[in-house]
Design brief:
The protein has 426 residues and is an alpha+beta fold. 69% of the residues lie in helices and 11% in strands. It has a four-stranded antiparallel β-sheet, with no helix packed on it. The longest helix has 70 residues, at 314-383. The two termini are 42 Å apart. Residues 1-17 have low confidence and may be disordered.
């Protein structure tokens, strides 16, 4: 009967879809988790930011228009105006209302590496965001591990429940025959039947829990999880052979690289900047003030040149900015030490748990064999009237508990092994 049940289980599994391994579930969950889309969004944002910063090398063009009314303007002294009038020249002077429509064009020639360093800072900031996102995505593996092994444990419990029902049903049939022959009491038959029905109720609860767990895992992975495959036991998992390559460490490295890029940007902020420019405007007055004093007409005016600027204002905060970046590095390194310390503690605990379950499993087979022999002896004693049915049920439950304990030890050991793989990212 048990062989038939196993065959039927595999037929259903094959018809319903292929079996899923833990690695397949983890990969599917990472692809399905919405945070994975943020990786492309971060990269696209960084590319656009870098492109915008690079446009600082393009000519900077500005247009302006202004109209002013001044309280006073440049004018000749009265004596000079009298001389001009005697000569027949009407020097009216500048008007107090003045107008200008102009365009300024400026091209950076040398910026001391400011644009280059700003681009690098933008890239490193995107790197930090991506590393933070990787940390969050990596944590999905732990959730998958917990659900996957919980599902495996439920499958084991369901199978053991069915085996127990078969065993109780066989004894129930024996007692029914003995009852007909007058060698067993009706209460004994009813007791075994009640126990079988109680175990059947437990199966309903287990199946309901399995259905809920499978739906949760399927939703997390984005695929239908119908037949989880029990991982093979990983032998000889030693703590000394494992190295920690967690994304949290890559995040810390990214934070340090960002601080380095920001420090270079501080150095670039102190460098002088050289640019060439061109200015042109149409208005009144122009650059030729004497002509504008006489004719008062709008004119075209232009100017080209080079400009060297050196802003030393960054010196005021440079010392504090340097200290702040040094504190950022120290904080990052402290986070690294804290993480590695806690990670090492987790590895020690998980390795000890693995070894503990291995030792427990060494005796599980022998315990089951002994419990099975005791149970068979109890069945024989019941047929000969030496013990009552309560003694038999106690031995049956003890054997089932031993089998349940063996399954739990095996699943828990596998879970600890893959938790250790998660801890070390191996």
């Amino acid at each position: 009967m048990r062989r038939f049940t196993s065959i039927l289980f595999w037929i259903v599994a094959l018809c319903g879809g292929h079996a899923q391994t833990l690695e397949e579930c983890q990969q599917a969950a990472e692809r399905n988790y919405p945070l994975i889309q943020r990786m492309d969004l971060i990269q696209q944002t960084a590319d656009l930011t870098v492109k915008n910063i690079a446009k600082g090398w393009l000519p900077q063009i500005s247009a302006s228009a202004q109209a002013t009314l001044q309280s006073d303007v440049t004018a000749f002294p009265d004596e000079i105006q009298d001389v001009y009038q005697q000569m027949g020249i009407n020097m009216r002077g500048l008007r107090k209302d003045q107008y200008r429509i102009g365009i300024d064009v400026q091209q950076t020639v040398f910026d001391g590496g400011h644009i280059r360093n700003q681009k690098e800072v933008a890239r490193q900031q995107a790197g930090v965001e991506q590393a933070e996102n990787e940390v969050n995505i990596y944590s999905i593996r732990k959730r998958v591990n917990e659900m996957f092994f919980a599902l495996l444990l439920l499958d084991e419990q369901i199978q053991l429940n069915r085996d127990l029902q078969e065993l109780l049903s066989a004894n129930e049939n024996k007692l029914a025959s003995m009852l007909k022959g007058g060698t067993a009491a009706e209460c004994d038959y009813q007791n075994v039947k009640a126990e079988r029905l109680n175990v059947a109720q437990q199966l309903v609860t287990l199946q309901s829990g399995r259905k809920a767990m499978a739906r949760m895992l399927s939703t997390l992975c984005g695929i239908e999880i119908s037949s989880p495959v029990k991982p093979e036991t990983v032998p000889n998992t030693h703590l000394s052979s494992l190295t920690s390559q967690r994304p949290e460490l890559r995040l810390i490295d990214s934070q340090i690289r960002l601080a380095d890029a920001q420090e270079k940007a501080l150095d670039a902020a102190l460098m002088p900047r050289l640019s060439v420019f061109a200015q042109g405007f149409y208005g009144y007055p122009g650059y030729n003030l004497f002509d504008d004093m006489m004719h008062r007409q709008w004119s075209l005016n232009g100017m080209v040149g080079a400009r060297l600027s050196w802003n030393i204002g960054a010196l005021y905060t440079r010392k504090n900015d340097k200290a702040r970046l040094a504190l950022m590095r120290q904080t990052a390194e402290n986070n690294r030490e804290v993480f590695l310390f806690n990670n090492n503690l987790e590895q020690i605990q998980q390795s000890e748990n693995i070894e503990r379950y291995r030792q427990l499993m060494n005796d599980d087979d022998e315990i089951i064999t002994l419990r099975q022999q005791v149970r068979k002896a109890a069945e024989s004693k019941l047929q000969h009237g030496i013990i009552d049915v309560n003694d038999l049920l106690r031995e049956i439950n003890a054997e089932n508990a031993a089998r349940m304990q063996q399954s739990m030890h095996e699943i828990e050991m596998l879970k600890e092994i893959y938790e250790l793989k998660y801890t070390t990212n191996n």
